[in-house]
Structure formats: C-alpha cells, structure tokens
Amino acid sequence: MARNKYPEQTLEQILTVSAKLFTEKGFEKTSIQDIIDALGMSKGAIYHHFKSKEDILEAVMEKQFSYAAQMLDELIQHTEAPSAREKLVLILEQVVADQDAHSMDSVLSTQIKNPQFVVTGIKEGVKKDAPIIAKIMVDGKQDGSITTEYPIECAEVFMLLVNIWINPMLFDRDQEETLNRLRFLQQMMKQLGADILSDSLIQKITERHSDIGGYSKDER
Predict the structure, then answer these.
(1) Cβ within 8 Å of residue 53, ≥6 positions away
(2) pTM
(3) Residue 34 lies in a domain
(4) In this structure, how many other beta carbons lie within 10 angstroms of the beta carbon of residue 106?
(5) Which residue spans does the record list as DNA-binding (predicted)?
(6) Hey, how many other C-beta atoms are within 10 angstroms of the C-beta on 110?
(7) Start-to-end CA span in the chain (Å)
(8) Which of 168, 190, 201, 204 could tie 173 with a disulfide, CB 3.0–4.6 Å?
(9) Burial per residue of 11-49, b for 16 or more beta-carbon CB atoms within 10 angstroms, e otherwise
(10) In terms of DSSP H, where are the helices of the chain?
(11) For residue 116, what are the domain limits?
C-alpha cells in the first residue's frame, strides 16, 4: 500500500529495472514476468502504469531522449570555443562520446526496423535537436564561422541523415559503406556552409555503431 502513495517513485523504479533487464537480456528475451520478479511488485502495480512491454520500452526511450536533451542544454551552456562552429563541433563530439547518452543503444537497435521507432527518432531529431543546432548555426552566421542561409533546414537535414540515413542497421551496411556516407555528409555540410562534421566525430560515430554491432554480418 505504501508504494502506491508514491506513483512517481514506482514509475521510476519500473523504468530503471526494465532498462537494466533490456540491456542485459535483450528486449525480446525479457518478459513482463521478468520485470515483475526483478521489481518484487505485483502484476497490478506494473499494469497500472503500462499496458505492455512495448509501452515500457517507449517510456524508457522517452527517458533516454530527455536525458540527451538535458545533456545537450548543459553542453551549450558550458562549452567554450573561439567560434560557434567550433563550439558546435565540440558539442556534437561530446554527445556521441557520452556513455550514458548511449547506454540503451544496444536495446534500441533491436527496434530499428520498427516503423514507429524510426518515426519517433525522426521526430525527436527534427523537433527537438535540430532547433538547438540551428540556433548555434545562427550564432555562427553572426561570427562568420558558418555561412549557410538556411540554418534551420540545414540542421534538420543533418539530423535526419546522421540519425537515419547513416544508421547501418537500417540498410544492412558494412563499416566501409557507412564511412563513405559519413564522408559524403561531411562534404555536403561543408558545401552548405556548415562545416560541423569533423573527422573526430566521424570516427566516434563509426566506433559507436561498431560497439552495438550495427554493421552487417559480413563485416564482423
């Protein structure tokens, strides 16, 4: 009974334990009963908050997205650089390198061909992340380090391509194919007047996909 007096605490417990199980066992191999057993709660307590395991995963995803957004805000406030372009490059590199921001990547990768998951990723990138990047690009226009006339559109295209088109799991690509697309994106961003995809960032993105087994089997 006491547990029901703190629904937010209960919800946080469910998400924390579920995320741990999804990471250790994999989403498909984790059952609702596994989550119930690990929590030591009644089935009713779980179903009071979630209708299914998929609903729990969606909430875990949202929590991960919120963490990433908060981290991005903090990086913007505390990252110093000679120009807005260099600041944006540093921020992007730190986001990709942050382990906590990508702690659920191996779990989320199992859902990468789920249309709902892909659409959610597209919306998150365009609606939440792109405006933040665009604002720094506007600052870059003012200091001369970024020259694009379309900072909002440029940021949206960048997020769409780096999150979706670059993802090797969506298209069954190997590491070399993925690297070629990253280099193409790097060249394209330069031509658009927003040289924000550094060689270091390319390396970090390539390594991140390798860490979660994102490349096609013939590469591994």
Answers:
(1) 27, 30, 31, 32, 35
(2) 0.77
(3) yes
(4) 16
(5) 31-50
(6) 17
(7) 51
(8) 168
(9) eebbbebbbebbbeeebeebeeebbbeebebeeebbeee
(10) 7-25, 32-39, 43-49, 53-78, 84-97, 105-108, 115-123, 130-143, 151-160, 168-171, 175-191, 199-211
(11) 53-212
CATH number at residue 176: 1.10.357
What sign does the dihedral 90-92-97-103 (CA atoms) show?
A: positive
Helix (H, G, I), strand (E, B) or coil at 118: helix
Per DSSP, the three-state class of 71 is: helix
| b/e code 82-95 from CB counts within 10 Å (16+ = b) | eebbbbbbbbbbbb
Q: Which amino acid type is present at position 30?
A: T
Residue 108, token pair as written in the block: 């989320």
Within this chain, do residues 17 and 100 fall inside the same structural domain, yes or no? Answer: no
**One domain, residues 35 and 61:** no
- Length of the chain in terms of residues written: 220
Instruction: For residue range 98-148, list pLDDT tens digits in order.
Output: 877 666 666 666 666 667 777 877 887 788 889 999 999 999 999 999 999
Contact between 107 and 22 (Cβ < 8 Å) = yes
Give the amino acid at 86: E
Counting the structural domains of the chain, the total is 2
Structure confidence by residue, pLDDT tens digits, 166-218: 988 888 899 999 999 999 999 999 999 999 999 999 999 999 888 777 676 54
Claim to verify: residue 35 and residue 140 sit in the same structural domain: no
146 and 98, same structural domain? yes
Neighbours of 57 (CB within 10 A): 24
